[in-house]
Design brief:
The structure is a single chain. The protein starts with 9 loop residues before the first strand and ends in a 17-residue tail after the last helix. It has a 6-stranded parallel sheet. Strands 6-7 form a two-stranded antiparallel ribbon. By secondary structure, it is an alpha/beta fold. α13 crosses α14. The chain folds into 2 domains: 148 residues, Rossmann fold (3-Layer(aba) Sandwich); 192 residues, Up-down Bundle (Dehydroquinate synthase-like, alpha domain), CATH 1.20.1090.10. β6 and β7 form a beta hairpin. The protein binds zinc ion (ZN). The site of zinc ion has 7 residues, from α10. One of its GO terms (biological process) is phospholipid biosynthetic process. Keywords: Cytoplasm, Lipid biosynthesis, Lipid metabolism, Metal-binding, NAD, NADP, Oxidoreductase, Phospholipid biosynthesis, Phospholipid metabolism, Zinc.
Length: 364
Amino acid sequence: MTKKVHIPIKLTIEHRAIPHLFKNEVYEWIKDQKVALVSGSGKTRQVTDQIIDVINEQASGIQVMTCKENSLDAINDLERRVLEDPPDMIFGVGGGKALDVSKVLGTRSNVPVVLFPTAVSSDAICSPVAVIKMLNKSTSIGVKMPQAVVIDLDLLASCPPRMMSAGIGDLLSNKSALFDWNLAHRAGKEEMNTFARLMADNAADSFLNVLNREEIDQSRLMKTAAESLIMSGIAMSIAGSSRPCSGSEHLISHALDYHCGAKALHGEQVAIGVLFAQYLQGKRDHVEPLLPYYEKLGLPTHYSDLGYTREEMHRAIRKAPSMRNRYTVFNEWDLTDETIDKMLDDVYPDHAKNRYQQTGSSAG
Ligand SMILES: [Zn+2]
């Protein structure tokens, strides 16, 4: 049996990647081609202008589309514009939503997509999954992988620290997700793809290795986080699902989105979810070794720092197992309201509050 795995042909992660785009292979691809640029409306719109300055003479036509939200209506609207004057390539420019919307548009219209992430706040920067809003709820759908990803490290350096924390939270979740995948495999519920597992595990490890060095070089840390998130996306493509990077911790984040108002960034919620998932997976022994990393990285350690009340967090834990039909550590526990309360006290003690500054907004 053969199975096709889609990965990007070209990855660029460097300083001045956008001003130097004319030296990039992507520049050759768009010679005399029509390019549609999809971006957010704020800062990412300015990045789009920088890209247009570079590609203006190379492309035969440029169409700019602003995406304010990732709702189905907004996507349908953009798709109509794409169908009226079909581009040869779509450039997605943004922190999250614009990237997801570009992937959906590219998949629906069968046009290759190049992503220009302006923040690395999740593994959406290079994954076969997009999050869109349907009936006011966020839903993940399968999409084609981008043909190339271009990350300008100078842009990332000017991002609010919160975006970076979210990206790292999404990356650390590989560990708890792989634990859950293994449980599902052992319980005979799912096949294990060893290559995808190795990639997702190494993605998290290579980041932790940089972190374990005595002197942390911020620029190196950012580059490694971007590389590791891309490797995570490729692991998902190999597995054919988000399994290697999404387990019980993601179910908690999905429940916070669905049932508690989606008050924080995906990766921030996942970081909080990882602490609870690790607790379920091995009790305290698995949570405590993580805390120094959280402290070093400035990750959130208490749900209240993301704007959630205890009642909401309790609800999220209660609802999490039903968010997806996916076997995780939740299936091995019979959680009562009482045990959830006790666990919330253990995993998120009062002294873990007020350590996180939720400043800066979405760059989508
Ligand atoms: Zn995620």
